[in-house]
Amino acid sequence: MVEKHNLKIYNTISGEKEKFESITPDFVGMYVCGPTVYSNVHLGNVRTFLSFDIVFRYLKHLGYKVRYVRNITDVGHLESDGDTGEDKISKKARLAQLEPMEIVQKYTNDFHQVLQQFNAIPPSVEPTATGHLIEQIEWIKKLINNGFAYESNGSVYFDVKKYNEEGHNYGELSNRDIDELMANSRELDGQQEKKNPQDFALWKKAAPEHIMRWPSPWSDGFPGWHLECSVMSTKYLGERFDIHGGGMDLKFPHHECEIAQAKGANGEAPVNYWMHTNMLIMNGQKMSKSTGNIVNPRELISGENDIFEKGFDPMVLRFFMLQAHYRSVLDLSNDALVASEKGFNRLMDAYGLIDNLSVSDESSVDIQSWVATCHEKMDDDFNTPMLIAQLFEGAKMIQLIQDGKETINEHDKAILKIRMKEFIEDVLGLKPISTDKNDKLDTAMQLIIDLRNSARENKDWSTSDQIRDQLAAGGITLKDGKDGTSYTI
User: Which of 118, 149, 120, 278 is nearest to 218 (CA)?
Assistant: First the structure.
């Protein structure tokens, strides 16, 4: 049974916070656009997926049964939003001289491993684009029959102008004027097949050299990127579902196209609440490979980078990301992470004191009011920074009880323990860092490092390299520096 609540969600399509009401009582259907698996997961993507992990966790905390669907894009995502260029996975496969599905498997594994480190709960369903090609072809047939799509030289495009002429509004999510877009658009190379530059691909005929291709009524080819999400979201959640999420960069054209496809095929809007996360920048600038202003999650955790003074535990990184609201720009810097690490440790230290707090006959602290405020903060569009501020109020209260300046009775102590666990571990997904385990590992690793150093002093390079390589195979990297040898996991 769902707990009584007053949850409000900022709905991108209305531009306002709206009270959340699920379509089916006690059940929420949520779809989030997953990664295109042609490279290691970007830290900005991690922020997006952690934001929706919080949404998933909090809805479950309130008592909803949640079906969380997050896709894997393993075909159809071209280099340009204008339906030109090469498929990103095909290009990576060609450059690496691998089968495309080897690329897909490699980076899907990486994606799962990184999110597991950040303690993200896996989705209820994780469908792939290639696993739903039949459904995508059937959806295209429906759009053609409804008059919203046309075939051109073996490719099929969605007719945006026709869609608007039928009383719809392509541009409603991103607040764009389609007539103005069309007037200012110029035809790009490879777009001559389209009636209008704003039309988008539902099916692309594969060039002879294109590796990923499947038969269809129109040509051997592959589906357009936007189509997969419309097909998979509605297959697993119904023609209209509660929440659709993704990064703000997906508002246009990806999510705009999803709305058009759903209305064109089924005659109604697919989603009640559209949610979008904001950007993660670093040292005040956009992350970019070309400028070198970039770090990936593994490098940030291990410390194997030239930007940050050391590695940071995934729980510290998760805590850092949750200290900003998901709709705010978040600036990653060394100073910010060091401050977050101190704050995380302070909160966890207080959390660890609860069991040993002395109890009194009466409580001088108001636990119920504190709990109500925690819910109030999360009910305000999943406001994690405000919840964290309230948890620090709880930490302060615990310390005052520990110092004998406040009192707590047995009943309130039990409530405090339960609620601190719920908000810290279940809702925010934070967990204590096991220093005990780290100390034992440090001792063992120091012995191995000493043995390797001994081999190097004796010019036994074979043994030295064997130790390094076998540790690397197990996920442990040795780093030799002027201050000696250190290790990272």
Answer: 149
